[in-house]
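Lecture notes, unit on protein representations.

Consider one protein chain, 267 amino acids long.
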Amino acid sequence: MNKNIHTFAMATFFTFCSHYSFAVDKSMTEPASCAIPTAPVKYVPFSTVQFNSRTQYRTGSKKFLQMFRLSGIIKQPDNILKGTYWSFETDSNMGKNMDEFSASYQEIEMNRSFWYKSFYVAPGYVWHWESAGSQVDPYLELGYRWDPTFTTAIRYRYNYWTYFSKDVDKNWDRQAEHRIDLYITKNVTDKFKIQYNPTFYQKVADTQYYYKNDKRHTLQHNFIISYQVSDRFIPYTELGYLDKTKNDKGDKVSEYQIRLGFRYNLN
């Protein structure tokens, strides 16, 4: 008896579903009980977006500076720009007592990393502009990931001023310089990261411009420490040495920088 009831129920089910599945009228849809369930489509944003705010103090020139930056990486799977890093940054002078707020310069940066196993190459450029004019800075970065926690990279960047300014001989010319950065990054834990970034600058041979150390080259050092408090909030601090500079009295003094900031993931 139970076997007959089970057979009758199965026959009724298949007859009901086949009525919709093989009907001539294709406008009819399957009932929910017959439809094959599908996994929900995961939402992928066009780009990640991160907000970065940083306050800086320089000991030699005794002034504060403020930076705001929006940045991200394009994530859409079918987009030709997938994997491209982008950023927009604006920097302002805040004076010696943080009572000023005058625009200093703005920058747009883009690059794209191409990986081969643990090695990557990343061509990119920075477009920098201020009241005096603009600056175009193409670069190429090479990096290697030694293990999941340790990465090194070197970047060559050519900085070219598109506008004229007076050199040391009072002649009008365009500035240009070579810039080489070394990045040594270590993830101490999943949340705690440190980085050492020395930077070497060299004026090109055919221009008569000097740095504030009265030389045509300068070497700067910067240490970065960051800690990821949550998935969105990442505070950090930077300590740097910017070589020599001249203070208000014209004396040559060492220039150190102290930076305090945070990054916040908006999506």
